[in-house]
Specification:
The structure holds two protein chains of two kinds. By secondary structure, chain A is an all-beta fold. Chain A has no helices and eleven strands. Helices cover 0% and strands 49% of the residues of chain A. In chain A, strands 2, 4, 5, 6, 9, 10 and 11 form a seven-stranded mixed sheet that branches. In chain A, strands 1-3-8-7 form a four-stranded antiparallel sheet, with no helix packed on it. The termini of chain A are far apart. In chain B, a hairpin with a 6-residue loop joins strand 4 and strand 5. In chain B, the strands form two sheets. In chain B, strands 2, 4, 5, 9, 10 and 11 form a six-stranded mixed sheet that branches. Classes of the chains: A mainly beta, B mainly beta. At the A-B interface, strand 5, strand 9 and strand 10 of A face strand 4, strand 5 and strand 10 of B.
């Protein structure tokens, strides 16, 4: 158990719909990262938040958005869903956004499996 | 998006055999990480490497940070059935903690 929690575990929805995925980081971690993993693919970085502020963007579609709340949990919103959005979505957390000093690596949650029909 | 190249793509071995896999990049990284992912689960960090040439062990696992900073290697000795899973390398350059992940090596171990 990494200490990172994600809900829901599974989500089935239809094309055109909107869903929200939730992540609670490890206790004390200030940084949250979102990744997408399509079938038999590696992990693609989507976006990072640190203490409520967006820090980095990766391959995140305009239909997707995220935020981190004052209690440090994060939500990933996916809208106008397409079949190709079906994937595992992982959240990871760490303490610091920058390398250097003590190293704090990313710890991953169990993921949310999204199926778009 | 950018991905690191891992090889082999998959391996099917007998229990007790040693395993080697590697990860290469066209870019230089300052950190190399190795994760293991079980089916339906999130990746679990196995080993972290921070210096070129560094050799680090975690039980039966040994990983090395290549001297060119463009590659890394993972070895598993005396494999057991619970080693089954997908092994991902990940690299990080300077600045913020964006990780670039490899394409993964799927390991199957026959009892």
């Amino acid at each position: 158990d990494s200490g990172v929690t994600q809900t829901p575990k599974h989500l089935i929805t239809a094309t055109g719909q909107r869903v929200t995925l939730r992540c609670s980081p490890r206790s004390g971690d200030l940084s949250v990262y979102w990744y997408q993993q399509s079938l038999d693919q590696g992990l693609q970085f989507l976006i990072q938040y640190y203490n409520g502020e967006e820090r980095a963007k990766g391959n995140i579609l305009e239909r997707f958005s995220a935020q981190q709340f004052p209690d440090l949990h994060s939500e990933l919103n996916l809208s106008s869903l397409e079949l190709g959005d079906s994937a595992l979505y992982f959240c990871a957390s760490s303490v610091r956004p920058l390398a250097g000093g003590s190293y704090n690596e990313q710890f991953f949650g169990p993921g949310t499996r999204l199926t778009v029909l | 998006g950018q991905q690191l190249n891992q090889s082999p793509q998959s391996m099917f071995i007998q229990e007790g055999e040693d395993v080697s896999m590697n990860c290469t990049s066209s870019s230089i990284f300052n950190t190399w990480l190795w994760y293991k992912q079980d089916p339906g689960e999130g990746p679990v960090l196995l080993i972290a490497l921070y210096k070129a040439g560094e050799l680090t062990s975690n039980g039966r696992l040994t990983a090395q940070f290549g001297t060119t900073r463009k590659d890394s290697f993972l070895n598993i000795s005396a494999s057991i059935p619970s080693d089954v899973g997908i092994y991902f390398c990940a690299g990080r350059g300077t600045g913020f903690q964006k990780l670039v992940f490899g394409t993964g090596t799927r390991l199957l171990v026959s009892p």
